[in-house]
Design brief:
Blueprint (H helix, E strand, L loop, with lengths): L7 H22 L2 H6 L5 H7 L3 H19 L8 H12 L6 H16 L4 H27 L9 H22 L4 H15 L17 H4 L7
């Protein structure tokens, strides 16, 4: 890819066109001409900057993930719990939001190819790790502040919540099921399983029977 001669406006325009063409045509049927049709640039111009569809989609995935991270770089909230709740709201945006729906559709198309494409897989793995680190950071801050229980494992909780996020996003795109109910459950999980208000007596129901839910570990994984 030769992006040195492209302005940021040109790059954004091509990425936006790729976004819309991918959502409309799907990965398998997508062509450079489809992308050009959604852009102000010709097919020849696209080929001048990108060797082909594969390279363009690799750049698009990087662009998509960067924009998502920019959107979630700063989340509101005065406490770690409030910031974690706000981050969950960003991760599980309502299906009624057209941009969120398009994001899920585009990501599902790319994810479906990642087992066969090392470049996609590497980028998605890096994004996954950044999400886990971000959530683990909020949780660690909450534990340090005494807001979350001191037996909560930030890394395991991050792993658990990112798994929930990916599942909810895929389900929303694949079978048109809004992630709204999942978001409600995650908010309840934060308040009931992570917070120290119950004196650290146990899981979401306040008992001692199973601490795995409180630390984000599925039972049987320990």
């Amino acid at each position: 890819m030769d992006s040195s001669r492209m302005s940021e406006e040109t790059i954004d325009g091509i990425m936006d066109a790729t976004y819309r063409a991918l959502c409309e045509h799907g990965y398998a049927e997508l062509t450079m001409q489809d992308i050009a049709a959604k852009s102000t640039k010709s097919k020849g111009t696209l080929h001048y900057h990108f060797d082909g569809k594969q390279e363009l989609l690799e750049a698009f995935l990087e662009h998509l993930l960067e924009r998502f991270e920019e959107r979630t770089e700063t989340v509101p909230g005065e406490t770690p719990a409030e910031r974690l709740h706000a981050f969950v709201d960003e991760l599980l945006s309502s299906a009624d939001d057209d941009s969120a729906t398009a994001f899920r559709t585009a990501m599902l198309e790319i994810k479906a190819q990642s087992p066969y494409d090392e470049a996609y897989q590497e980028r998605l793995a890096a994004f996954d790790q950044r999400l886990r680190d971000r959530i683990a950071g909020f949780v660690a801050d909450g534990v340090a502040a005494g807001e979350f229980r001191d037996d909560v494992d930030p890394e395991a909780t991050g792993e658990f919540l990112v798994t929930v996020f990916h599942g909810a996003q895929t389900r929303a795109a694949a079978v048109d099921r809004s992630p709204e109910r999942t978001k409600e459950y995650v908010h309840a999980y934060i308040d009931e399983a992570l917070c120290a208000d119950d004196g650290g007596s146990g899981g979401a129901n306040g008992d001692d029977t199973d601490d795995s839910a409180a630390i984000g570990e599925p039972e049987g994984s320990r």
